[in-house]
Amino acid sequence: MSERDTRLHGSWRLISFETELQDSGERSQPWGDHPNGRLIFGSDGRMMVLVTAGAREPGTTDEKLLGLFRTMMTYTGRYRIEEDRFITRIDSSWNEAWNGSEQERFYRLDGDTLEVSTGWMPNPLVSGNPIGRAVLGFRRE
Questions:
Q1: Structure pTM?
Q2: Which residues pair with 76 in a beta bridge?
Q3: For residue 47, how many other CB atoms are within 10 A of its CB?
């Protein structure tokens, strides 16, 4: 593995989750000021990510359980590095449609801070699904 690969190894704590609209550049925090989550890159070529909204209540009804599902994202698989992005071949995900797919994420590493962003795509968290992307900030633990 290259030097770039090994610098990602380890556990990263989520410190921010924002969505950005392509047309306006407007950013919002759809899951609040203090989202929860971890991103882990293993030296064995596997990664795992879990992101949840900051304010979540335990679910005891179908409606509350659905709300919990809609405020989380998690997947795992084997990853590879290509220039300024990592691509994960998903083998298990909270969204069955992602299993077997490849998810591409762009990243910028600055010391113990890691910024990860998706490509531009219709944003399912905004009414009308305008083109946007997610931008996540992580700090090494």
A1: 0.90
A2: 48, 92
A3: 19
Residue from 68, 67, 15 nearest 39 by CA = 15
State the DSSP string of 56-103.
Answer: -----SHHHHHHHHHTEEEEEEEEEEETTEEEEEEEEESSGGGTT-EE
For the segment 74-118, what is each residue's pLDDT rounded down to a tens digit?
Answer: 999 999 999 999 999 999 999 999 999 999 999 999 999 999 999
* CATH for 3-140 (2.40.128.280, 1.20.1530.20, 3.40.50.300, 2.60.120.260): 2.40.128.280
| Sequence ranges of the domains in the chain | 3-140
Between residues 60 and 124, the one the model is more confident about: 60
